[in-house]
Amino acid sequence: MMFLHPETDAGNLLKGVTKMIIDNVRIYQPSGEEKPEELYAVEFEGEYIKAVYPSPYQGEGPVIDGESRVLAPGFNDSHMHLLRYGLLVKELDLREADSFKEMKEMIQKHYGVLEEGQWIFGKGFNDAGFEDLERPLTAKDLNDIQVNAYIYLIHEDGHECVISENALDLLKEEKEFSRIPESFKERDTSGQMNGRFKDTAVHFINHRFWGRDKEEAKNAIKAALPRLSSYGITSVHTDDRSFIGSFARLYEAYTDLEQEGNLPIDVQLHHYVFHKDDITEFVEKETMRTGDGTASVTVGAVKLFLDGTQRLHTASMRNPYPDEPSKSGPLIYNQKEVNEMVRYAAQNQMQVAMHAIGDRAVEQAVTALEQEEACTKDLRHRLIHAQTLAPDLIERISASHAYVETQPSFLLGEWDKKEKWVPEELVPFSDPYKSMKKAGIPLTLSSDLPIGSINPMVTVGTAVTRQDLEDQPEGGWMPGEKLTVDESFYGMGHAPAYLEFKEYRKGKVSPGYQADFVLLDQHPLESPPGRLKDIKVTETWHKGIQTYAESE
């Protein structure tokens, strides 16, 4: 037996070694038969787990001492924007700006000379917190940066942007922009667009104005990957097309990284579309369909936005917003259009993922998924967010066999605002995780990175406690909707594997499954619920290769 010290770089030491054993570990996985107090040895060969034995391991082969740490399946984040997150790491990040003055200084420092005709991009501003501004930024304000520049700044939550007057002139020339609902375009008192846009309009502008070339995308993704590995993330489903413009270029960027040995995760790539023509173009140009691709990069779902966000009162509700009774939020498409897009995608073997936050948008999505031609059970279509429901919608989602992607970390900053956005009688059906589980609806937990927390343990902890990072409110918000630890880990591991049609090879510590796992410093079932968020990943392994090890 060859023993290796756990603090060494096992990936480098074991080049050329296909068999590996991690001994002296406790195993935790949802519904697993392993006993928390018992120690095990996990053997894997190449990319897959071969066997699980009682510890100490008695056979031959290279062995690493797991030091009685907890080995669990790697995390699979089923909803994020990885390229956008990488761009935040690589490009101008305005999240720390507390004033308009400070933001201007950050832009000047980043770009140096600001010239006429220059493109200026920035991400992450939050003008609601600016000390020297009492209203939202508009195009006229950006003249203070450079009056003749093309400026495009994205809000920290990704659902709002402001562009300069020069950029606004370009946008007015885009005929397709007329198809974006007026509710997503702000206008001044004279009826002119003021440079401020929301939700789908933002995605349109991303797609038209902010496409990167392949090398820029690769560099941004590479900048983000070590952070994902440090939190134990071994698989992601990501919507990146808006930030690169072309699905083909996006796929090539990821597969290049894979071929170069620089992709320590599995990736499913969604294809965001604005209307049926986009789906038709994809079907006619691309031969791949959902699940097709390489060993680590596969085609995901066709993604549709059916509504906006509750903060902006653009999530489509069946009732008016309590704090804005004149608003109930627009639907981006009519029912016939959604039905047709879902049917067409399904006929061409494409899974569909629909962003639907308000209950009216959820109802529209479910109506489309109830069509026999949608093949919802077979294709495993998914609803994203579904933050406001009702008993009738829970029943219909369950009967449709659709999956629901939830983002528990949103509750960290929203639990105390729900009563402003949702009628009193529907507040108990906001983010109703337990009710959906009881109804048999398959749930995944995810981050919506960079909007939600990158840390899966924060996501898990929030789902279990329904409290923010200050442990508020006491007892948890709508405590009847708490998930168990097992349910939460399942939602960040095995459940997303079903959406990839890989439930028999990902998401478990079991023979035949990918050797994707983490070592944790505590056993989740032994941690107080409020401290789940503090559990740390000490090592991450993807397909039998160590991708992260905590430094001393």
UniProtKB/TrEMBL annotation:
<dbReference type="Pfam" id="PF07969">
    <property type="entry name" value="Amidohydro_3"/>
</dbReference>
<dbReference type="InterPro" id="IPR013108">
    <property type="entry name" value="Amidohydro_3"/>
</dbReference>
<dbReference type="InterPro" id="IPR011059">
    <property type="entry name" value="Metal-dep_hydrolase_composite"/>
</dbReference>
<dbReference type="InterPro" id="IPR032466">
    <property type="entry name" value="Metal_Hydrolase"/>
</dbReference>
<dbReference type="InterPro" id="IPR033932">
    <property type="entry name" value="YtcJ-like"/>
</dbReference>
<feature type="domain" description="Amidohydrolase 3">
    <location>
        <begin position="63"/>
        <end position="548"/>
    </location>
</feature>
<protein>
    <recommendedName>
        <fullName>Amidohydrolase 3 domain-containing protein</fullName>
    </recommendedName>
</protein>
